[in-house]
Design brief:
Layout: H1 6-13, H2 22-32, H3 36-45, H4 53-69, H5 73-86, H6 92-111, H7 115-127, H8 133-145, H9 149-162, H10 167-179, H11 184-197, H12 202-215, H13 218-231, H14 236-246
Length: about 250
């Protein structure tokens, strides 16, 4: 059903370039190539004794991101919190780093089911005026995790007010509307649009198939869920949905 939002955060991280120490630069290069294991190895091997303050913060920042990507969440938290508690420097890059780290902290807290802590980080950003589609999507995800479906829908609506083409919000809200039976026709429209944006997303295909199932169109549901399963055969939620639909009477 849902996407975490960290992919969006990653894309934004490349918009700002930093003057990095040579020992960090190779780790950053590997991180951006999505070679997170070797990026981490390189960063851990760096001699930080001579680092100035800004270099230490950049080093902690990328260590936190690498550990997040490798799903070593407790290690990631310690480094990301270093960046957040360091404060922001006077330039825009420092403020951006704190923003992104709070978003990643919130993501980790949601994934590890510490939803209240996630909400705390997100509300801090909202209070600071740092609203964004990513923030509202993550708040909505946290609400959904707590079975606050109406609140989740309202937050996804806020995302779409800011970015009407946000596929994450369309997919997630469409799934909730279908799953709860609140508005099946709108659910189908939203899920179709999300798939149009990312036709190879197993998550989006799954949501569309589930929406068709909830609408009573079993044949269409099987078609889309089968595609989702072909792309992500090990995804538990997709397997569960496909099993239910495969056993339903057309």
């Amino acid at each position: 059903m849902q996407q975490s939002g960290i992919e969006e955060s990653d894309n934004q991280s490349e918009k700002i370039e930093f003057q990095l120490n040579d020992q960090i630069r190779e780790g950053v290069r590997l991180y951006r190539m999505k070679d997170w294991q070797n990026a981490l190895k390189n960063l851990l091997a760096a001699d930080t004794a001579g680092f100035i303050f800004d270099e230490k913060i950049e080093h902690a920042y990328y260590l936190g991101l690498c550990y997040t990507k490798l799903k070593e969440y407790e290690k990631a938290l310690s480094f990301l919190e270093q960046v957040v508690t360091s404060g922001a420097s006077g330039d825009g890059s420092g403020i951006y780093r704190v923003y992104q780290c709070r978003m990643t902290l919130a993501y980790i807290y949601v994934i590890t089911k510490r939803v209240k802590m996630a909400e705390y980080e997100l509300r801090r950003l909202q209070t600071a005026g740092l609203e964004s589609p990513l923030l509202y999507n993550t708040l909505a995800y946290a609400a959904w995790m707590q079975k606050q479906n109406k609140n989740a829908i309202d937050l996804y609506e806020k995302t779409l007010e800011i970015d009407s083409d946000n596929a994450t919000a369309m997919n997630s809200m469409g799934f909730i509307l279908a799953d709860t039976g609140k508005d099946i026709m709108r659910a189908l429209r939203l899920c179709r649009r999300a798939v149009d944006f990312k036709p190879q997303s197993a998550v989006y295909l799954d949501s569309l198939g589930w929406a068709y199932y909830k609408s009573g169109d079993i044949l269409e549901a099987r078609t889309w869920l089968r595609r989702a399963l072909e792309i992500a055969p090990d995804e538990e939620e997709i397997k569960k949905h496909y099993s239910i639909v495969a056993g339903a009477r057309a």
